[in-house]
Design a protein that fits this description.
The complex is a heterodimer. Chain A is α+β, with helices and mostly antiparallel strands. Chain A has three helices and six strands. In chain A, strands 2-1-6-5-4-3 form a six-stranded mixed beta sheet. The two termini of chain A are 28 Å apart. In chain A, strand 4 and strand 5 form a beta hairpin. By secondary structure, chain B is of the alpha+beta class. The chains are: A alpha+beta, B alpha+beta. Chain A: It comes from Pseudonocardia bannensis. Chain A: Keywords: Dioxygenase, Oxidoreductase.
């Protein structure tokens, strides 16, 4: 189905553009390590989930709540992760990595709940640290966003990293 | 000193009585090539837990050294470890992490093997191979010995040598306290954390062989966040059999919060398993005595060479360090639960593991950075000629029974600030590197003259 099949294609296109602008802003906050501003984009009810990707015979895309995840955070643990990146002893990020987030393929559709949208996006995150230590993370995000004045809050985020084995010594970036 | 191609040079590489280990053993490709034979083809290597291959046809894939391995429960109910390489051209016949199947078919020329590894299907068998190929002789290469201890499966290529239980030796006392305290046994959370760290496998393994010394500084971050307090000076590092553990001693809660049960009090994360572990301690105490029961949870631990675990009040994990060259290690790590835990506690334990460990864990992030940079510091021409200093606690070691306060605690022990375990880890390493290999590394193919 394309946007043209929708009842209000112009409105939907506007919505996707608006959400994309929000994602560019969010990516910039993370790339500039403005974590205190980034965590403000969530609410006390937000969830943040990144299941591990298992290559299962005959069932390659099955992911289930309760199975192992890279992140299975509520707002409290997400706040801890953010605080940890600013700690004086965060050796994995001292000196800080240089990161660049590319956010693409943004779609947004109205949800059944007033003021909420379901949004999807793809990401490529490049991290370079120290001299030539370079890591790349690629995947998709599925969000439930809630309108908050001129901006949005992230109510639910699912991160589908495309990696089975992460070829990085650690993952001290947020998605 | 330098380790070159001459085996004689290995004699002095590890001087465990002096706490010296030559750094060349972490970076030299020739030493690494010899390790794949003498360490990885001559030891019991962790394969998985029986619950991961519970039903006929269930399989998981892993590695032994650099060799890809399928752990498969055949339709005869028997668990085998098979080299994941087609006997025709060597292609991996199974390319999934896990699943259930009745056969493994090579995608290249369609040679097809049963879940027990027998060669069953060969295209053009009558037209092209008539009278030449005996299928019985061309099954998947099977790992020589697979044995299970408390449901933990280990494989060994060497046909001779100690059984798994003999090899574990006295360490079974501690292994049981970690993995068999719940009479119902353990279960593994589905899914694994899998990632590579650009470091030598020994750097990762010796850390889990109970490097308590690194915790306060490497993991200052959780302390800064208020998740951990300063480490106490009372604790242990114990080596027994082929295994190692190390942790702070449990402290009675009465010192902290008015209760009577012991608790590892340097963590301030919610101790969600406290009641359950207290019950386990009570049961273990009746059978094995209070001093051993009080060790639960046992903290950091490892089995030589690459199986490791962490047993904390908050969660428990197990992992294996697969070598991928002298300067890269592939980690497979799982969250392990006692089967009798209530479902909501299991869920909370898993989440505490995910918050603190795995590649994105608040503690584990810093380990990966540190280990990679150890490798970078040892790589150069001068750097590799230096020794690593493993003198912590040298001359201060006692019997484990004295440290634990129970005659039934086997092994040699240091206090919490000791590298006695690492010295013995490298003593094992040296012993295996100097012993001739008994693995059938070059078993001839059928018909080879």
């Amino acid at each position: 189905m394309t946007l043209l099949d929708e009842a209000r294609p112009a409105n939907l296109a506007m919505l996707s553009l608006e959400v994309a602008q929000f994602y560019y802003h969010e990516a910039r906050l993370l790339d500039e390590r403005r974590y205190d501003e980034w965590i403000e984009l969530f609410t006390s009810e937000s969830t943040y989930w990144a299941p591990v990707r298992v290559t299962r015979e005959g069932d390659p895309d099955r992911m289930q709540r309760g199975e192992l995840a890279l992140f299975d955070d509520d707002f409290g643990t997400l706040e801890l992760r953010v605080a940890s990146l600013s700690a004086k002893s965060a050796w994995a990020e001292i000196p800080p990595s240089r990161t660049r987030r590319l956010i693409t393929n943004v779609t947004a559709t109205e949800s059944d709940v007033e003021g909420q949208v379901s949004a999807t996006s793809n990401f490529l995150i490049f991290r370079s640290r120290l001299e030539a230590t370079e890591h790349t993370f690629v995947g998709a995000r599925e969000d439930v966003l809630a309108r908050d004045g001129a901006s949005w809050r992230i109510l639910e985020r699912t991160i589908l990293l495309d990696h089975n084995v992460y070829t990085s010594d650690n993952i001290s970036v947020l998605f | 000193m330098t380790v070159g191609s001459h085996l004689a040079d290995l004699v002095g590489a590890v001087q465990y009585d002096k706490g010296l280990v030559a750094r060349s053993i972490f970076v030299d490709p020739e030493v690494y090539a010899l390790e794949l034979d003498r360490i990885f083809a001559n030891n019991w290597l962790f394969l998985g837990h029986e619950s991961q291959v519970a039903e006929p046809g269930d399989f998981i894939t892993t590695y032994m050294g650099e060799d890809p391995i399928i752990v498969s429960r055949g339709h005869d109910g028997h668990v085998r470890a098979l080299l994941n390489a087609c006997r025709h051209r060597g292609m991996r016949v199974c390319r999934s992490d896990e699943g259930n199947t009745s056969f493994f078919q090579c995608p290249y020329h369609a040679w097809t093997y049963s879940s027990a590894g027998e060669l069953e299907g060969v295209p053009k068998f009558r037209l092209g191979y008539a009278g030449v190929l005996d299928k019985k002789e061309w099954g998947l290469r099977e790992v020589t010995r697979v044995e299970s201890y408390r449901g933990f499966l280990f494989g060994n290529w060497a046909p001779e040598g100690p059984s798994l239980e003999e090899w574990l030796g006295d360490f079974t006392t501690y292994f049981d306290l970690i993995f068999a305290r719940d009479p119902a046994g353990i279960e593994v959370v589905p899914g694994a954390h899998r990632w590579t760290v650009d470091t030598n496998w020994k750097i990762a393994s010796e850390n889990f062989a109970a490097d308590m010394y690194h915790v306060e500084h490497s993991h200052a971050r959780p302390a800064e966040l208020g998740l951990m307090q300063a480490m106490p000076d009372e604790g242990y590092q114990i080596s027994a059999g082929m295994g190692f553990v190390g942790h702070a001693f449990t402290r009675p809660v009465s010192e902290d919060a008015g209760g009577e049960e012991p608790l590892h009090s340097y963590w301030t994360l919610p101790n969600i398993q406290t009641e359950f572990l207290a019950e386990m301690r009570k049961q273990v105490a009746e059978e094995k005595g209070a001093a051993l029961a009080r060790l639960i949870p046992l903290g950091h631990g490892a089995l030589f060479p690459t199986f490791a675990f962490l047993d904390l009040e908050q969660f428990r994990l197990m992992r294996v360090h697969h070598p991928q060259g002298p300067d890269r290690t592939l980690i497979h790590q799982w969250c392990v639960l006692d089967r009798s835990l209530p479902a909501d506690v299991k869920d909370a334990v898993r989440k505490q593991y995910e918050l603190t460990f795995g590649p994105a864990g608040l503690l584990e992030q810093d380990d990966g950075e540190n280990w990679r940079e150890c490798q970078n510091g040892m790589r150069g021409f001068i750097g590799r000629q230096l020794d690593s200093n493993m003198m912590l606690g040298l001359g201060l070691e006692k019997s484990a029974s004295e440290i634990v306060g129970d005659d039934n605690a086997p092994g040699v022990a240091g206090g919490i600030w000791s590298e006695g375990n690492q010295r013995r880890f490298y003593e094992h390493w040296q012993r295996f590197m100097q012993a001739p290999s008994s693995a059938p590394a070059s078993e001839p193919s059928p018909g080879r003259g």
